[in-house]
Design goal:
Blueprint (H helix, E strand, L loop, with lengths): L7 H11 L2 H5 L9 H29 L2 E3 L2 E3 L4 H10 L18 H14 L1 H20 L2 H13 L3 E5 L15 E4 L5 E11 L9 E9 L10 E6 L1 E3 L5 E4 L2 E6 L10 E6 L5 E5 L6 H37 L1 E4 L8 E3 L4 H33 L3 H37 L10 H9 L8 H14 L4 H19 L3 H28 L3 H6 L1 H27 L7 H17 L4 H10 L1 H9 L5
Parallel strand pairs: 3-6, 4-6
Antiparallel strand pairs: 1-2, 4-5, 5-11, 5-12, 6-7, 7-12, 8-9, 10-11, 13-14
Helix pairs in contact: 1-9, 3-5, 5-6, 5-8, 5-9, 6-7, 6-8, 8-9, 8-10, 8-11, 9-10, 9-16, 9-17, 10-11, 10-12, 10-16, 12-14, 12-16, 13-14, 13-16, 14-16, 14-17, 14-18, 16-17, 16-18
EC number: 1.3.99.41
Function: Involved in the assimilation of dimethylsulphoniopropionate (DMSP), an important compound in the fixation of carbon in marine phytoplankton, by mediating the conversion of 3-(methylthio)propanoyl-CoA (MMPA-CoA) to 3-(methylthio)acryloyl-CoA (MTA-CoA).
Protein name: 3-methylmercaptopropionyl-CoA dehydrogenase
């Protein structure tokens, strides 16, 4: 089985030519994010991903997490890998220096996160959740909470979780019933059962800090009555020393389709005197505070889709290059060739490759906008970047994971029958990818958020601004003398028109029928993701064309970038017309089926 090879060359290209690393490094506090430093970080991260994390991915899937004497145990090799990860300072890559982190931009951290996910999503979930807990405590935690928990979370000595849902609640967090009783000493006693808690318990470190949604006794019903609490696995005194175990117990591990090495727990709080918890922020503001980690997790899960897709593609490409079967079409020799020579296999591999590069480009452009939205010196620039990030977040979460799932499935198809056999490893990527479209809000929830909150609430202002930027790229492509670039421009122009028409339809429809507009939200998410990624591939083709020069050693890479962009335009971007038709004309049929009783 092939190990993961970090796509450093393409990441470098995107950071420099599309995401604007130099501009990000000029923001206040990011002076250390020079190209030399960033390159060194990426090289080290790539080596760690391929040399330490990737080798335990397959064995971890086979062995899986398990419970021994009531405690979850991780597979062989995971304790050592995580210890190396923590010692390397990777947990604090983009954490503020004041908290003990390295304060690198989110842009750089996102590139590194893709590599962790390409090496092993099961492993990468742990630092992703810990980073989210750090963000919440840093932004809304009291000084005492920060002092108690943050130093060892940043160092990676302890890990963190987000503890949201319950058996009766699912995605409806307003239905949470876990109870929190004031103890009279500033702490609370929590009792209740939580499910689907990723890394809810494990033996990789001494302590885990859970962020738990619960209701204080007497709180209002629904979402307005939910508070957020930090509940450690083991008690921690004011000096940071560990004490006895808290009243938190792992009841069982979920038996899952994929991510077998990730312990997904059912946790019981307060079986005895009640689990000691510390209020994070104000009472009854738990959901808005938890959204700090939830929004970050949505983008992080999108990167899971990109990383998994890259790993599935690398496996399929290697197999297709090695597997000899059949004669090449049009050849008179009859000689057997590697299946990569067969046109449909090449089509599948190019479909995988082009979408991965498109997603990577958009992901890192969004990450750069996150940095500018927070740190740019101009208020107008911060607002514009914030609007762009909010618009693209459902795309990053929904479109990336849906395509990651499809690419993993296509990887099995390239393998043929051997892909369906677990020993090849191709099936693991599909199994692991399946949850990503569900994590942190299903694709349908992301689509409704996109249409309702991000498109229609502001009358389409944010998406029209993006469409104007897309048009600028289209014009540059169509004016270029290179035939491939002009072809990309023509296809991009048609796709932008379809996106604009669909967005206008939704804005108008939402005013008189929210239900009708939302019935087309899923196809619209697909449409926006398709066109937004096509926009980035157009930008990539223009950059590659500009950089081509006889003396360059990377001309082959640049030529391939143009070819890949042309493939995306012809094979992926061309779907925009059909998707727009579904948005505008398909919603009424969907509702008619429901009203006729078909769905029931």
């Amino acid at each position: 089985m092939n190990q993961y090879a970090p796509p450093i060359a393409d990441i470098h290209f995107v950071l420099r030519e599309l995401a604007g690393l130099d501009e990000i490094a000029a923001l206040p506090g990011f002076e250390d994010a020079t190209w030399d430093v960033t390159s060194a970080v990426l090289e080290e991260a790539g080596a760690f991903a391929s040399g330490v994390i990737s080798p335990i991915n397959r064995s971890g899937d086979i062995e899986g997490a398990r419970i021994e004497n009531g405690c979850p145990r991780m597979p062989l090799g995971w304790r050592d890998a995580y210890a190396q990860f923590a010692r390397g300072g990777w947990n604090g890559l983009s954490v503020r220096k004041a908290l003990g982190g390295q304060n690198l931009p989110r842009l750089v951290a996102a590139a590194v996160d893709e590599m962790w996910n390409g090496a092993s999503v099961a492993f990468a979930l742990l630092p992703m959740l810990t980073r989210g807990v750090i963000d919440v405590l840093d932004q809304v935690g009291s000084a005492a909470l920060k002092a108690r928990f943050l130093p060892r979370l940043v160092s990676g000595e302890w890990t963190g979780t987000m503890v949201l849902t319950e058996p009766q609640a699912g995605s409806d967090l307003s239905a949470v019933r876990t109870c929190a009783r004031p103890a009279g000493d500033g702490t609370y006693r929590l009792s209740g059962t939580k499910i689907f808690i990723t890394y809810g318990d494990h033996d990789l470190c001494e302590n885990i800090v859970h962020l738990v949604l619960a209701r204080v006794e007497g709180a209002p019903a629904g979402a307005k009555g939910i508070s957020l609490f930090a509940v450690p696995k083991r008690h921690v005194n004011e000096a940071g020393a560990l004490g006895e175990y808290n009243d938190v117990r792992c009841v069982s591990l979920e038996r899952k389709l994929g991510l077998h090495a990730t312990p997904t727990c059912v946790l019981a709080f307060g079986d005895q005197a009640g689990a000691v918890g510390y209020l994070v922020g104000d009472e009854n503001h738990g959901l808005e505070n938890m959204f700090i980690i939830m929004n970050a997790a949505r983008f992080a899960v999108g990167l899971e889709g990109v990383g998994l897709a890259e790993r599935a593609y690398q496996s399929a490409r290697a197999y297709a290059s090695e597997r000899v079967q059949g004669a090449e079409s049009g050849s008179s020799s009859g000689a057997k060739v590697a299946i990569v020579r067969h046109p449909d296999v090449r089509r599948m591999l190019m479909s995988m490759k082009s979408r991965i590069e498109a997603m990577r480009a958009l992901a890192l452009v969004v990450a750069a906008s996150m940095d500018k939205a927070e740190w740019h010196g101009d208020q107008g620039e911060r607002a514009a970047n914030r609007a762009f990030v909010e618009l693209m977040m459902p795309v990053a979460k929904g479109w990336f994971t849906e395509n990651g799932l499809d690419i993993a499935s296509m990887g099995i198809q390239v393998h043929g029958g051997t892909g369906f056999i677990e020993e090849t490893g191709a099936a693991q990527y599909l199994r692991d990818a399946r949850i990503t479209t569900i994590y942190e809000g299903t694709t349908g929830i992301q689509a409704m958020d996109l249409v309702g909150r991000k498109i229609c609430r502001d009358g389409g202002t944010a998406i029209r601004a993006v469409i104007r930027s897309m048009r600028d790229v289209q014009v540059d492509l169509e004016l270029d003398e290179h035939g491939d670039l002009r072809a990309i421009g023509r296809q991009l122009g048609q796709a932008i028109g379809e996106l604009s028409n669909a967005a206008n339809f939704l804005v108008e429809t939402y005013r008189y029928s929210t239900r009708l507009a939302l019935a087309g939200s899923g196809p619209f998410l697909d449409l926006l993701g398709t066109v937004a990624c096509g926009w980035q591939m157009g930008r990539a083709a223009l950059a590659a064309r500009r950089l081509l020069a006889p003396e360059r050693v990377d001309n082959a890479f640049l030529q391939n970038k143009i070819i890949t962009s042309r493939f995306y335009a012809d094979h992926i971007l061309s779907r925009a017309t059909a998707l727009s038709h579904v948005v505008v004309h398909g919603a009424e049929v969907t509702l008619a089926m429901d009203e006729a009783g078909f769905a029931g």
